[in-house]
Structures are given as structure tokens and as C-alpha cells.
Design a protein that fits this description.
Shape: elongated
Number of helices: 9
Order of helices and strands: HHHHHHHHEEEEEEH
Number of strands: 6
Strand content: 15-25%
Structural class: alpha/beta
Distance between the termini: 89 Å
Helix content: 40-55%
Length: 246
């Protein structure tokens, strides 16, 4: 045993090995926990937006898209944010395992705990109303995300299946409006027996989604009209603020 100890000491002297300072260990520990915390925070943001999108997903569109289940799934399930949540849970797991006691816990428990913590924190963020504001920021500032949302909106360009979306370009009468759809086609829409969701009212340049039936070329009868973007009438309110500024 003494010989082994002497050999180790000799090797340390030859290689000029120096012990790490306490400050270096504290810095490393701080970095690991900081990155772990950031991973949980970003996972919480992803979770909050996913909760928001799931709550306001248009599940009733299944009857219109029942023959296209993949499109329906892409429309109502926030895959983008769920993938982000799992990705940040993976980061949290990686750095938690590098903490002093991290090696003691099973992989499944660490990953499950990270996801659960992100969902709980995400629920708190959602309750504050921050999730919708964050989604708006992403739509306005991240081209990839904006394109993804625009692809979702294109699902509404299925007039034969009772779905239509576009912008009101003219209010013909109390019974009819004229809209320009997302493909720049012009439609005359019968709104005589229409239910307006989200406190909407007919207004020029208002962007809307319509549930109803196609009646001949460029003719559509609306059963229900919803805001194209936003929830609970936010699309309408943004339109009114923009109009008042003018």
C-alpha cells in the first residue's frame, strides 16, 4: 500500500498536478445550476404557449376536416412548442445529472420531473396572460414561426368543406359582405343568420374565419364568423385601435 501511495505522489509531482481552487468548483456549480434553471424557464415558456394554444384550439373543426386527420392534428396540436418543451427538458436533465447529487436519480425521474416543473411554471405564466403576448411577439419577430402560423391559417381555405378565411373589403348591406380570401379571391358572403364570435361586428379590413357553406361560384353562406387571429375578440380590438389612430 505504501508503494502505491509513493507512486501516486511521485506521479503527481512529475505531472505537476495542482488541485482546483474552491472558487473554481463554486463557479462550475453555479454555471450548471444556472443553465438548468434557464432550461426550466424556457421549457415553462414553451409549456405556457402550448397550454394557451390547446385551450383555444378549434376542436370543433374535426367535422370539416375528418377526412384529413393530419391537417386537423397540425391545426389543433401545438407540436412546435411541445418539441421545444421536450428539448429543454433534455437540457435540464443533462445539466442536473452534472450536479453533485444528480447521479443518484434515475433518468426517467429526472426527465419527468423537469417536464412536470416546466408545465407547472408554464401554467403560472399562462394564468398571468403572458402566454398570448409571447405568442404575438414570436409571430411578429420570428419569420419561421410566422410562416408556420400562416400555414395553419391556410387550412381555412377549403370552401368546399365549409371553411373560408380572408379580409372584409366591403359591407354590401346588413345581410351581405364582400371578402378577399387568403388567395386574393373575392367572395360575397351572406351573413343574415350568422353568429359572430369574440364580440366581432362587420367592419372593413377586419380579418375573419368563416364556417358555413359554399353556394355557387364566389358565393358563401356564413353560419359562424370568428377572428382570424387572437382570442376573445382581440382581433377586433386591434382593428379598432388601428382605425382610431387613423
Amino acid at each position: 500500500m505504501k508503494d502505491i501511495s509513493k507512486n501516486i505522489l511521485q506521479k503527481i509531482k512529475e505531472d505537476k498536478v495542482r488541485p482546483y481552487s474552491k472558487g473554481r468548483f463554486l463557479l462550475k456549480r453555479s454555471v450548471i445550476w444556472t443553465v438548468f434553471g434557464i432550461s426550466i424557464l424556457l421549457g415553462s415558456v414553451a409549456s405556457a404557449i402550448a397550454i394557451f394554444q390547446l385551450k383555444y384550439a378549434e376542436w370543433d373543426l374535426y367535422q370539416h376536416l375528418s377526412h384529413r386527420p393530419l391537417e386537423f392534428a397540425l391545426l389543433v396540436i401545438p407540436f412546435f412548442w411541445l418539441i421545444f418543451l421536450l428539448g429543454f427538458a433534455g437540457f435540464a436533465y443533462y445539466y442536473f445529472r452534472r450536479t453533485e447529487q444528480g447521479y443518484r436519480y434515475r433518468t426517467l425521474w429526472v426527465i419527468s420531473g423537469s417536464i412536470a416543473l416546466s408545465i407547472i411554471c408554464g401554467g403560472i405564466l399562462y394564468a398571468t396572460g403572458l402566454s398570448e403576448r409571447l405568442e404575438t411577439v414570436f409571430q411578429h419577430n420570428v419569420p419561421f414561426y410566422r410562416e408556420l402560423q400562416e400555414r395553419k391559417q391556410r387550412v381555412w381555405m377549403s370552401p368546399g368543406q365549409g371553411l373560408l378565411a380572408g379580409k372584409i373589403v366591403k359591407i354590401i348591406s346588413k345581410q351581405k359582405i364582400q371578402i378577399e380570401d387568403l388567395q386574393k379571391n373575392v367572395w360575397v358572403v351572406d351573413i343574415g343568420d350568422t353568429i359572430w364570435k369574440g364580440r366581432l361586428r362587420p367592419a372593413k379590413n377586419l380579418k375573419i374565419k368563416i364556417l358555413g357553406n359554399m353556394k355557387g361560384e364566389s358565393q358563401f353562406v356564413a353560419d359562424e364568423i370568428r377572428p382570424l387571429q387572437g382570442r376573445k375578440g382581440r382581433g377586433r380590438m386591434r382593428h379598432l385601435r388601428h382605425k382610431n389612430k387613423k
